Amino acid sequence: MSKTYSTMLALGTKAPDFYLKDTNSDSDFFSYADLKGEKATLVVFICNHCPYVIHVVDEIVMIANDYRIQGLGILAISSNDVQAYPQDAPQRMTEFAFENNFEFPYLYDPTQEVARAYQAACTPDFYLFDNQDKLVYRGQLDGSRPGNGIPLSGSDLRGAIDGIFYNRTINPDQKPSMGCGIKWK
């Protein structure tokens, strides 16, 4: 497993827009505005084969289920080069989303322009925006990693979401996410 850390896009950055195909449907394309939540929006860069993503995918789904009804918009994006990594191709994304009970869009970024706009570096890479589309959190889900024995809790990301929902201060001292590097073309 290669270890790549998130680049930590500047807090306050406005959410970059996109228009990407949802691999969970035959014909749907979505923009950021289509998917943004009433109170906050979580953009997560993932892929199908990364052991770091596989380690946290159940917690990502739980966070989506716990907060969606409270006003969190959530979406996942895969930007990996599918020529070099066919296991991350759109058809496999559909299967991965189904197997992991995604009830949120899993978008495919074929040009990798969206990943570059977000300065995404690894999978998973988390970006939380407030209702004004300003970045308030980017970093790790929690301290758990494959094999380190720390149980998954989502504590870092959940703390930031709760900060938005309950008008609490979000700590600006945020730890970067760590995972497999995005597979650039």
Please describe what this structure looks like.
- The protein has 185 residues and is α+β, with helices and mostly antiparallel strands.
- Helix content is 26%, strand content 23%.
- The chain has helices at 32-35, 51-67, 90-99, 113-118, 155-165, and strands spanning 4-5, 19-22, 29-31, 40-45, 72-78, 106-108, 122-123, 125-130, 135-139, 178-181.
- It has a 7-stranded mixed β-sheet. Strands 1-10-7 form a 3-stranded antiparallel β-sheet.
- It is globular.
Beta-strand proportion? 15-25%
CATH class placement: Alpha Beta
Topology, number of strands: 10
Total domains, how many?
1
Distance between the termini: 19 Å
DSSP helix fraction = 25-40%
Low-confidence stretches: none
Task: Tell me the quaternary state.
Answer: single chain
Mean pLDDT score, rounded?
Answer: 96
Any idea what the CATH architecture is?
Answer: 3-Layer(aba) Sandwich
Radius of gyration: 15 Å
Report the total helices. Answer: 5
The class by helix and strand makeup works out as alpha+beta
* Series of secondary-structure elements, N-terminal to C-terminal: EEEHEHEHEHEEEHE
Globally, the shape reads globular
Per the CATH scheme, the topology name is: Glutaredoxin
What would CATH call the homologous superfamily?
Answer: Glutaredoxin
Strand order of the largest sheet: 3-2-6-5-4-8-9
Sheet with most strands: 7 strands, mixed
